[in-house]
Design a protein that fits this description.
The protein is an alpha/beta fold. Helix content is 42%, strand content 17%. A seven-stranded parallel beta sheet has the order 3-2-1-4-7-8-9, sandwiched between helices. Strands 5-6 form a two-stranded antiparallel sheet. The chain is globular, with a radius of gyration of 18 Å.
Amino acid sequence: MKTILITGAGSGIGAATAQLLAKQKNTRLLLVGRNINKLNHVLDRLDNKESHLVAELDISQINKLESFLSGDEANLKEHPLVSVFANAGIGGSNVYHKSNIPKDRWNEIIDVNLSGTYYTCITSIPWLNEAKQKGYETRHIIVTSSILSRFGVPTQPAYVASKTGLLGLVRSMAIQYARDGILINAINPGWVNTEMARNRIQEMAEEEGGTYASMLEAQKQYVPTGKFSEPEEIAALVQFLFSNAQTSMTGQAIDINGGAWMS
């Protein structure tokens, strides 16, 4: 049975991807996140839930990632790691001015979004290489970046910097591991109908002194399709990239955003 690792699996895109991939035969999932209750809720809804494993981990702590992947529960020697969805991330403004003392979140956001994704990749690489010895010629890493890797927005320098940095990370690692048969790509979602997006819209409304409804409508106007993507749409793209239907795409950033950014 092959193994797929999903970080940020407790909600949104990660949870939707887990639900889709769990339907595949001969597949077990390692679901990682920072909230064990949310992870267990996702697990309860999966097909063959007894085959999958959840773990409460902060991906910015590399030692804990290494220990988890090499541990008996993950059991990657028996069930080879063939694909990694490095999806975990946090959002929000970099600096809050809701009081006289602003709170700068630069380190927090960079540590999780950029460093944590890097740690996820490099701790997975040895296990992906080991899977090749067991007959899995092509293996995959997909990183969740963002439409905001394409342009800047006010109040979010840390988030934009972290997501832009991920594209450089993907390109560099894709070149390094292409001959090993590891394909590494990024996806750039725009607005997706998730809890994280709703929280950000509420935050933006408060920053501008407006309402959630008015801010939601304003953001939809930036999207040519007039709607947010659904998490299941992003999950379907991940499933395709993991499927080995193609074995030539690597080092790419795939935009999926309702036309809000066209390159």
